[in-house]
Amino acid sequence: MSDLKLETANTIIETAFAKGAETGLKPLAVAVLDAGGHLVAFQRQDLSSLMRFQIAFGKAYGALALGMGTRAVDTMARERPHFMAALSDVAGGRLVPVPGGVLMRDGSGRLIGAVGVSGDTSDNDEAAAVAGIEAAGLVADGG
Amino acid sequence: MSDLKLETANTIIETAFAKGAETGLKPLAVAVLDAGGHLVAFQRQDLSSLMRFQIAFGKAYGALALGMGTRAVDTMARERPHFMAALSDVAGGRLVPVPGGVLMRDGSGRLIGAVGVSGDTSDNDEAAAVAGIEAAGLVADGG
Amino acid sequence: MSDLKLETANTIIETAFAKGAETGLKPLAVAVLDAGGHLVAFQRQDLSSLMRFQIAFGKAYGALALGMGTRAVDTMARERPHFMAALSDVAGGRLVPVPGGVLMRDGSGRLIGAVGVSGDTSDNDEAAAVAGIEAAGLVADGG
Amino acid sequence: MSDLKLETANTIIETAFAKGAETGLKPLAVAVLDAGGHLVAFQRQDLSSLMRFQIAFGKAYGALALGMGTRAVDTMARERPHFMAALSDVAGGRLVPVPGGVLMRDGSGRLIGAVGVSGDTSDNDEAAAVAGIEAAGLVADGG
């Protein structure tokens, strides 16, 4: 079963929203997945557009699927777009290869899950994800 | 944009979990969707099995897709299994036709969204959904 | 190119809605497809549930796909559910095997398209489709 | 339930067709979606090619999915093609990222839905969508 507690996931989401409020970001959506790629918690702020869940989920899923934050996935997609197009199909349309998907590990390096944020620029989305992960006492990998 | 606020969705989830704790239910997963069928918030309690998100989502989505709580959808599925099988394909595998998906309306009867709960028996899942909806000052339709 | 004029399709939809109003039906959705299975016109009355387009389309598409009204498709589905389950997959989830999908032909028997109606009981949906087809000077086949 | 009335959707379609006739455009297809991305009305003029529904729908859906008119989506797709390719997969092939998909809001800024037009050049398609939205007393956003 998952090493990621619901309480941890909720802390991550609250902190990501606080970071967004503090830095004046647009409405955010935050998805927290366990190491198996399964959704533990999600929240979407008011006035979000309708595909925000899929995009936030897809960033977190993409990070887990390829074992790297989506900033690195983005670089890979630009260098080898045909590879990313195929991976997107392989994943059944669940990969979103732009920054904002960040892996999280515990102090010993063990993979705990991933966070995906969508709503503002990809860079700001990623900063909100990292803030959430750190507030939960975990280490952000790939943000 | 959605008439369903994130704050309302969070109240629903917290109350459904409180109902589960109070009545000794197994770990629950609760999905709250707006009237357009889009996810606003989801939480899965620790020790849930891995497909809980899809099941909770599918109950709420099924209620919205067919305009009735999934208790009525369940009856329809028993009477006309070939119709439900086709609807499941039409919906891309997003309909779960057992109790636990409940529509929610405001005082004037306006549809606000739906709640789907999964984790315990279908009857108990439904009771948790109804408790959440009522705690948010909304009317449960089809639970 | 299609033998089905937009003007004809609009007459069919208006008449189906008039039939619904006259006989006190719930809000209806009506899809009109040409003989190639492509959508010419669709309208959904206010307060329809969210999957009405897919259901109305799927009835019309099912009639065209199998060359018979969906009343006959429904019978086939009850007799051979495994066949219908496979056809649903073959069609990519676009077949809805319950009454309400009716073929339309001109006076010489030439296939012009199909109409799918959803919103009330399957029998009432079908009656609205037939009314629309006849008002357009065409022959309802399979309703 | 949807804030978009069928009557409003029909006004939009009629006006878009009138705009097309007035400016000598090719046959148009017009899809009107509510804020949840669900089809309210569609009409395709005679002599349209066979995929016009999917294209018109996809422009409107793309605008809603990403919260911006498809003119802006088009720009994003040119700048980050790997992101658009992934979003297309995430959306199950329902996004069409070229001009002609326009959001519509009421006077208070509330999102009411989106219009997608296809048939002539993307610029002319967009102008027809904007004409329809304005004739319905709504505000075109992103056209």
Topology at a glance:
4 copies of one chain form a homotetramer.
Chain A: H1 6-22, E1 29-34, E2 39-44, H2 52-66, H3 70-79, H4 81-90, E3 101-105, E4 111-118, H5 122-135, E5 139-141
Antiparallel strand pairs in A: 1-2, 1-4, 3-4, 3-5
Helix pairs in contact in A: 1-5, 3-4
Pfam families (chains A, B, C, D): HbpS-like (PF03928)
Protein name (chains A, B, C, D): Heme-binding protein
InterPro entries (chains A, B, C, D): GlcG_carb_metab_protein, PduO/GlcC-like, PduO/GlcC-like_sf
Description:
Chains A, B, C, D: This is Heme-binding protein. Chains A, B, C, D: It holds the Pfam family HbpS-like. Chains A, B, C, D: It comes from Nitratireductor arenosus. Four copies of one chain form a homotetramer. Chain A is of the alpha+beta class. The first copy, chain A, has five helices and five strands; from the N terminus they run αββαααββαβ. Chain A has helices at 6-22, 52-66, 70-79, 81-90, 122-135; strands spanning 29-34, 39-44, 101-105, 111-118, 139-141. In chain A, α1 (6-22) crosses α5 and α3 packs across α4. Chain A is globular, with a radius of gyration of 14 Å. The A-D interface holds A 48-51, 54-55, 58, 74, 77-78, 81, 84-85, 88-89, 93-98 and D 35-37, 64-68, 80-83, 85-87, 89-92. β2 of chain A pairs antiparallel with β2 (39-44) of chain B, so a sheet runs across the interface.
